[in-house]
Amino acid sequence: MSTLKSFFKDTIIYGLATVLPRLMNFVLVPLHTDTLDTVSYSDNTYFYVYAAFFNVLLTYGMETAFFRFFSKSKEQSNVFSTALISLTISTVLIFAFVFAFNEPIAQSLGLRLDYFNYLVGVIALDTLVVAPFAYLRATGRPIKFTAIKLSNIAIYVALNFFFLWAVPKFGITVSGYDKADLVKYIFIANIAASAFTLILLSPYFFKTKLVFDKSIFKQMLGYSWPIMVAGLAYVVNENFDKWILPQLLDKDINGAYAGCYKIAVFMTIFIQAFRLGAEPFFFNHAKEKNAKKTYATIMKYFVIFGSLMLLFIVTYLDIFKELIVRDESYWIALDIIPIVLLANLCLGIYFNLAIWYKLTDKTRYGMYISIVGAVITIACNMLLIPKFGFIAAAWATLLAYLSMVIISFVLGQKHYKVPYDVFRVLLYLIVGAGLSFLVYYNFNTNYYISTAILFVFFAFILVLEKNEIKQLLKR
After folding, report:
1. How far apart are CA 152 and CA 160, in angstroms?
2. Torsion of CA 119, 125, 131, 135, to 10 degrees
3. What is the crossing angle of helices 317-324 and 291-315, to 10°?
4. What is the pTM of this model?
5. For residue range 340-399, what is the model confidence (pLDDT) as tens digits?
6. Domain tally for the chain?
7. Enclosing domain of residue 195
């Protein structure tokens, strides 16, 4: 099997680990938007903004550091053991400290105490399984990885439907059930699913000889802390808009904005599937003769698929909005969707480009780039939302990610030059984005014209890439 075929195979399997849970989660969006008003949905969004932030803080870049050192170390078991011990001890200590001072911390974050306690529980459980999940990916066990991920989301979805739909519909008796506070049951479902996942992965805490290698830990920590800072900046880029909108506008607007943001889930799925397959692949194949050429080819096809997906979602947006966000009170924020889709595609390109600083152990550059993006995000949101409303938040996200792409590409070509087909990548990106905005603003109710435009773009790609596609299929 060729290197590229191996990459696509792993990406497809890891894609299932992302696509199927997201599709199951996709079912929850109409459930949540049907049962929660925009204010409650804003509270739900607020909860997961903090969850994303603290997840990055508690893992402190150790997952990526694990891949880097596991792929090049002769003492692979020591790398896994060191990462496992490090994350477990730090999680337990931080959990104990935070829980001891939960009331003042919850108050400072603007969260109800019970919501904050749920938050701490979810974060702790999710952090404890980071090393075992990374081990499954690094050792090429995508099927087991996928099965555990699916069991997690199955429990989460089932409990969401039980608490938010079955209990009120059939009058099932649940002790202490509060119809006026349905959002908390989403958090309870999350804790239950995370606890079950930890049970499934618990054998990895005992099957490996526990050795804490101080030398390896120091190297991993030196590699990982800039990634942590970059991860925090990424969380700012992804979530600052949903954190600041309730303060600059109101919770109703934020709920509608966050609900419509979910329609971009398909692009997010595509990017996440790519990351799950690409990160270990890039590290494991870094020493191969044609590694850089392979990275360039992957980049081009990533942009091709991403551009097609962008145009496809915009073309059939009226269908997607009816499927995902059925409550019309959320539709006031639909105009953000083409912008958010393009922003997420740019983010995917950035993840692809980011391999240069990870392979050259210059992760501090990733930190600098992400900080630049976070500064742009914060500044644009603070300055533009009061003047232009929620649409400015979407444009701020796009501007931040586009800036990160440009900076990363320029620096990457100096430190780890990859022969990207810049002309083709830009061509597909610009044409795909241009056609998407054309369809949204001029033909969003005319499926005949918009579908024809989609097929023309697809044919355009096939004509330009037919020779290379034939060669890839023959390998």
Report:
1. 13
2. -120
3. 80
4. 0.75
5. 999 999 999 998 898 888 888 887 888 899 899 999 999 999 999 999 999 999 999 999
6. 1
7. 3-474
